From TrEMBL:
TM stretches of this protein: none
UniProt-listed Gene3D superfamilies: 3.10.20.30
The organism's taxonomic lineage, starting at the top: Bacteria, Pseudomonadati, Pseudomonadota, Gammaproteobacteria, Pseudomonadales
One MF annotation (Gene Ontology) recorded for this entry: iron-sulfur cluster binding
Recorded superkingdom: Bacteria
Pfam families in the record: Fer2 (PF00111)
InterPro entries: 2Fe-2S_ferredoxin-like_sf (IPR036010), 2Fe-2S_ferredoxin-type (IPR001041), Beta-grasp_dom_sf (IPR012675)
Name of the protein this chain belongs to: Ferredoxin
Organism, scientific name: Marinobacter guineae
Length: 111
């Protein structure tokens, strides 16, 4: 895996290691951190949005509908498509759960 980086969640103070060339989401999942919901893992759904408060990273392709260029400039990115170049400090962004909650409620009501 090579050299690794430390990723710290500013909100909780939790931190985890992220290998060189490994996405932040993959490192989170491998180490049992549940900071963000997980969707497609390919940059298209927007579920795993985080804010990088401090540090440098490379970005893979992300849906511009979920992460427009101006958001990236402010550090708002998808955890599945960023790869640390230095240690990072992140914040997990709250996701609107209205659509998911109503689908779950409807499913439960049908049973």
């Amino acid at each position: 895996m090579g050299r690794g980086f430390q990723v710290t969640n500013r909100t909780t103070g939790d931190s985890f290691a992220c290998g060189d060339g490994q996405s932040v989401l993959k490192a989170m999942e491998q180490q049992g951190f549940k900071c963000v919901p997980v969707g497609c893992r390919g940059g298209g759904c927007g579920y795993c949005k985080i804010k990088v408060v401090e540090g440098d990273f490379e970005c893979g392709k992300m849906s511009k509908a979920h992460v427009p260029p101006e958001a990236i400039e402010q550090g708002e990115v998808l955890a599945c498509r960023i790869y640390p170049l230095t240690d990072l400090i992140i914040e997990c962004l709250p996701q609107p759960a209205a659509g998911l909650a109503s689908k779950q409620t409807t499913t439960k009501a049908l049973r």
